[in-house]
Amino acid sequence: MYDYKLLIRGERPLEGETYVSGGKNTSLAVLSAALLCDEPCVIENLPDIEDIHVLYRIIKHLGAKVEFDPKQRRMEIDSTSIHTTEVPFSFTQQMRASYYVMGALFGHFWECRVGYPGGCDIGSRPIDQHLKGFNLLGGEIRDEGGMICLKGKPHGAPINFDMITVGGTINVMLAAAKAQGNTVLLNAAREPHVVDTANFLNAMGARIRGAGTDTIRIKGVPKLRGVTYTVIPDQIETGTLMIAAAATRGNVIIRGCIPTHMEALTAKLLEMGVMVTEFDDIISVKVNRAHRAIRLATQEYPGFPTDLQQPMSALLTRANGTSEVIENIFDNRFKHLDEMRRMGAQVVISGKRAYITGVSELRGAPLMAGDLRGGAALVIAGLMAKGETEIINPVYIQRGYERLEEKLSALGADIRRAKLS
Ligand code: EPZ
């Protein structure tokens, strides 16, 4: 299935209309939250991507009755038949978001034994804040031969995160939803998927207030009822498509997105001279002038998302002047720029800063995708480059973007799969 590479012939402007799939990171959190439910749930608008299939296999392994229809983008989960709270490392190492199973199992069954999470290699990714939260909620934590074991009846508590963590905020929210008493999460992440997960939990009967601000208040409830829930569109896919449109000097209408989630990116694209117009659930991106260099620093939401730093820095390799990109969230998220040097990109990396001087052309080259958003950045580089770009290891891209090649092809890109020789 993965023995292919991507071939891209660049310099073709993207034109036409496309659409955004359901949010990857939201879906992973919402599906995990369904494990807390005391009745069957239906989750809709799931993206058909590898990470969702991995989570489906984990949920099945737990013994939940689960039916996934990738064509309908829908999963039905009945967690009342769960018969184990152990998830081996062979499952959890397949993706970072497997950490959510911990919060959900602890919250529902008061115990679990779960392998450490895997995920993209973008720097050190500890889970100490998740564990701190579980511990303050009453979980006794042990490391048993590389497995995290949690035991104890969760009770409400005030929890002040030492740094803003998206996964930590959601995971502790899952564990606290059915805990006895009140929990307050301070210094909480405000990302759209934190809000969407809280909305889903509330739809099931949870009492969570303040999601989307830095203080989330949770009043534990004993039971959660089954609902049908539709996850929000993918913020990062929307941004990737916007950047691809800008990079190819195209004219693209992106349907089914939430423009308010895109404000940080929209502001930066406007600063570069890209025309971005927002409607209710549509964004249009059009280019009619040269791109200007900018200064960009990643921040937690509502700041510029780290997940769009890589696609955006690919775009900046062709802007007029020298851009400065500061990556504040992860410590190793510039590997795509090293690859792009082989295409002629001019980049100086110094710690968490990358200085990118725009060049008049990039040349197609063989490249290696090292992580999901880095892979998307290389696709964007290929779309801009003269000649043919070959991307080895595109499996990373497939983990997080639904039908990216098909969507780009439909907009006029020359992108195709070829057998690995
Ligand atoms: C989530 O990762 C996303 N993953 C990431 O998306 C995203 O890049 C990241 O949030 C930031 O927005 C999922 O939602 C599945 P964090 P997460 O906890 O939860 C440090 C993608 O490409 N930290 O907000 O792992 C951490 O090292 C992926 O879709 C601790 O030190 O991110 C990092 O420097 C990649 N201790 C910072 O906080 C902890 O216990 C933010 O991490 C937790 C985090």
What can you tell me about this protein's structure?
This protein has 421 residues and is an alpha/beta fold. It has 2 domains: 4-21 and 233-419, UDP-n-acetylglucosamine1-carboxyvinyl-transferase, Chain; 24-230, UDP-n-acetylglucosamine1-carboxyvinyl-transferase, Chain (Alpha-beta prism). 33% of the residues lie in helices and 25% in strands. The chain has 14 helices and 24 strands. It has helices spanning 24-33, 50-62, 89-92, 99-109, 128-136, 166-176, 192-203, 235-247, 263-272, 306-316, 335-341, 372-384, 395-400, 404-410; strands at 4-9, 15-19, 41-44, 65-69, 74-78, 86-87, 111-115, 140-144, 147-151, 158-160, 182-186, 207-209, 215-219, 228-230, 251-255, 275-278, 282-286, 295-297, 322-326, 346-350, 353-357, 366-368, 388-392, 414-419. It has a 4-stranded mixed beta sheet with strand order 22-23-1-24, with helices on one face. It has a 4-stranded mixed beta sheet with strand order 2-15-17-16. The longest helix is centred in the first third of the chain and has 13 residues, at 50-62. It is globular, with a radius of gyration of 21 Å. It binds ligand EPZ. Residues 24-25, 28, 96-97, 120, 124-130, 163, 165-168, 306-307, 329-330, 372-373, 400 line the site of ligand EPZ.
